[in-house]
């Protein structure tokens, strides 16, 4: 991918240096030709290139070829903060909204509750990892980036992105929508980029003048800038939803417990208008990082070891499972719980009160990660593909049948029926049968998945290279199957 020469970092670096005397003279942390009228006390005396500084509650409006904020934290132990800022380009500015000087930034920068719109040369430009950069770090949290080209986030190693929503509306900029990348890097520099609980929707269908659908990219332009081999960042995307093309160099982008169906809902705290930016208010309603990922706070529905009253239920997906779904019902109450950094219910998992003394829990996981809940009551039903899950209840491994007491083999359900499709691993076989008594799913001899349903004496399901098993009472009164399966009946009645 050829890079437009207007994105040259030397030009941006020198222009920023030329303007630093203006910053020192005014005592403001703002770099931009047109700024909002409100100047808050929190920015007074701060400078964007120093050991510690803050920029808060600002509306910054840029025109053609104008930079929004240029900055660096020059103290290795220093902190910079850009919070509750709205940066909007009115002329598709061919400069970044936020540019972090890679040669001077050695501390840590936090960009939080920032809204960036309409910049043609990256929303946040921060390629900081050595050898290109000086090795400073960056956290981007609870931000909303839309209609920005080249890259909404152009970053490399040492960056963590949390609960940030990225997309194109199709009703504004970019004028050059063909390079709408969520993340990409041209410069040499390894390290790790962690993307957690983000919503990225760059599918190309809603961008003026076309798009190449890029949502995530790490390869860069090897023809123009050489092949950096393995010295480029690795990207781990966890608990996120990503729509669009993923272009990874040698497979260095990994999705964990993530899907492809983003929901764009700017996090609470993001200013949606210029007035909100300067008044310190927000009309955004989306969940925050502290609500979906733990963050600096905790969810109202999450419990810790010290306050839990029930029994911990863990659902751990197998290493090869991708976005495996589950659903279970509890007569009583359920709260989300975290066991460790790999097992814990999060923002994409839901608990619904049914209004009849029961709650229904739905979620998904994969790649060896899992979810956990504290159950105060009885698990009455569960639907999942048992071949993809390990269940633990109170620290002990269990099964769906044992957990719901539907697979005990008691005299209430003395008969067993197994539908076996393992001889045809790539063929779907549908079945239906009816019994004169009662029936229940059983996972001790077969997998259970949401396509299997037990009605009032009628059971329907499907196998694709696996097994389904049921216990029942009475007699089988009807049975039909469409596909190559073996049927095993163990009748005690």
From TrEMBL:
Cited InterPro entries: Pectin_lyase_fold/virulence, TAT_signal
Compositionally biased region (Polar residues): 279-288
Taxonomy, superkingdom: Archaea
Disordered, as annotated region: 253-309
Positions of transmembrane segments: none
Protein name: Right handed beta helix region
Species for this entry: Halorussus aquaticus
């Amino acid at each position: 991918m050829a890079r437009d020469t207007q994105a040259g970092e030397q030009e941006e670096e020198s222009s920023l240096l030329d303007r630093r005397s203006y910053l020192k003279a005014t005592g403001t942390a703002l770099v931009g030709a047109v700024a909002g009228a409100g100047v808050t006390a929190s920015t007074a005396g701060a400078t964007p290139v120093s050991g510690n500084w803050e920029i808060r509650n600002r509306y910054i409006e840029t025109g053609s070829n104008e930079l929004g904020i240029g900055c660096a934290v020059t103290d290795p132990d220093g902190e910079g903060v850009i919070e509750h800022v709205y940066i909007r380009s009115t002329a598709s500015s061919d400069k970044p909204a936020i540019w972090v000087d890679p040669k001077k930034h050695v501390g840590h920068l936090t960009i939080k509750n920032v809204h960036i719109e309409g910049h043609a040369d990256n929303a946040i430009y921060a390629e900081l990892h050595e050898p290109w950069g000086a090795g400073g770090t960056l956290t981007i949290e609870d931000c909303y980036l839309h209609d920005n080209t080249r890259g909404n986030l152009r970053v490399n190693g040492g960056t963590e992105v949390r609960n940030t929503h990225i997309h194109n509306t199709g009703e504004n900029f970019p004028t050059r929508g063909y390079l709408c990348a969520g993340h990409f890097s041209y410069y040499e520099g390894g390290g790790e980029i962690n993307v957690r609980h983000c919503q990225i929707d760059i599918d190309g269908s809603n961008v003026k003048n076309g798009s190449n659908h890029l949502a995530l990219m790490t390869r860069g332009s090897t023809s123009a800038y050489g092949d950096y081999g393995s010295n480029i960042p690795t990207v781990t995307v966890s608990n996120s939803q990503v729509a669009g093309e993923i272009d990874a160099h040698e497979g260095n982008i990994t999705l964990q417990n993530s899907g492809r169906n983003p929901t764009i809902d700017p996090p609470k705290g993001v200013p949606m208008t210029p007035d909100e930016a300067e008044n310190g208010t927000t009309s955004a309603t989306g969940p925050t990082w502290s609500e979906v990922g733990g963050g600096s706070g905790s969810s109202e529905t999450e419990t810790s070891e010290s306050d839990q009253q029930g029994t911990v239920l863990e659902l751990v997906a197998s290493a090869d499972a991708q976005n495996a779904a589950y659903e279970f019902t509890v007569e009583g109450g359920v709260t989300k719980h975290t066991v460790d950094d790999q097992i814990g219910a999060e923002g994409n998992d839901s608990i619904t009160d049914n209004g009849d003394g029961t709650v229904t829990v739905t979620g998904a996981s994969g790649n060896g990660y899992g979810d956990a809940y504290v159950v105060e009551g009885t698990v009455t039903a569960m639907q999942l593909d048992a071949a993809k899950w390990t269940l633990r209840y109170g620290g002990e491994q269990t099964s769906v049948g044992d957990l719901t007491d539907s697979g005990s083999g008691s005299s209430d359900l003395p008969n067993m029926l197994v539908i076996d499709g393992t001889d045809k691993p790539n063929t779907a076989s549908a079945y239906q049968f009816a019994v004169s008594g009662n029936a229940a799913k059983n996972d001790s001899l077969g997998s259970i998945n949401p396509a299997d349903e037990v009605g009032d004496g009628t059971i329907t399901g499907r196998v694709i290279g696996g097994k389904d098993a049921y216990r029942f009472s009475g007699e089988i009164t009807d049975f039909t199957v469409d596909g190559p399966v073996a049927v095993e009946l163990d009748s005690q009645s």
